[in-house]
């Protein structure tokens, strides 16, 4: 018979899964408290939540939430679970943190109930963020417009110069 505490924890995990599209599973075995706190703060700044739960309780919640999701291979050892709605941003944070601190290992990522391995996290981390893409789009649109403004400015300047020349020629006659 499951304890009241475990039932409550499973319900909490299921609620987090409902409210977030992404669940990133990490191994933080050799991560010290200071580094874990730094990671937690960085994730929180970007609207992510990191929690430590028993693997067994997460497995139960995932099975109840997504029916046929297979995560058994990833729920071994010590795990921390990151809940998010932005897989690219979360992957970037974990990827960058892992480069500086090799003690954090990525196990898997679930996106909308589908399980992907560590390679997907690395791939997502290399995708430009929304802000970077917006900047590229604006730059792409802005460059031709700037050129167009420059061309029209030159045309008007040339036209004004020509009209001034014609005016001066007529006045001299």
From TrEMBL:
<dbReference type="InterPro" id="IPR047865">
    <property type="entry name" value="Ribosomal_uL10_bac_type"/>
</dbReference>
<dbReference type="Pfam" id="PF00466">
    <property type="entry name" value="Ribosomal_L10"/>
</dbReference>
<dbReference type="InterPro" id="IPR022973">
    <property type="entry name" value="Ribosomal_uL10_bac"/>
</dbReference>
<comment type="similarity">
    <text>Belongs to the universal ribosomal protein uL10 family.</text>
</comment>
<keyword id="KW-0694">RNA-binding</keyword>
<protein>
    <recommendedName>
        <fullName>Large ribosomal subunit protein uL10</fullName>
    </recommendedName>
</protein>
<keyword id="KW-0687">Ribonucleoprotein</keyword>
<dbReference type="InterPro" id="IPR043141">
    <property type="entry name" value="Ribosomal_uL10-like_sf"/>
</dbReference>
<dbReference type="GO" id="GO:1990904">
    <property type="term" value="C:ribonucleoprotein complex"/>
</dbReference>
<keyword id="KW-0699">rRNA-binding</keyword>
<comment type="subunit">
    <text>Part of the ribosomal stalk of the 50S ribosomal subunit. The N-terminus interacts with L11 and the large rRNA to form the base of the stalk. The C-terminus forms an elongated spine to which L12 dimers bind in a sequential fashion forming a multimeric L10(L12)X complex.</text>
</comment>
<comment type="function">
    <text>Forms part of the ribosomal stalk, playing a central role in the interaction of the ribosome with GTP-bound translation factors.</text>
</comment>
<dbReference type="GO" id="GO:0070180">
    <property type="term" value="F:large ribosomal subunit rRNA binding"/>
</dbReference>
<dbReference type="GO" id="GO:0006412">
    <property type="term" value="P:translation"/>
</dbReference>
<dbReference type="InterPro" id="IPR001790">
    <property type="entry name" value="Ribosomal_uL10"/>
</dbReference>
<keyword id="KW-0689">Ribosomal protein</keyword>
<dbReference type="GO" id="GO:0005840">
    <property type="term" value="C:ribosome"/>
</dbReference>
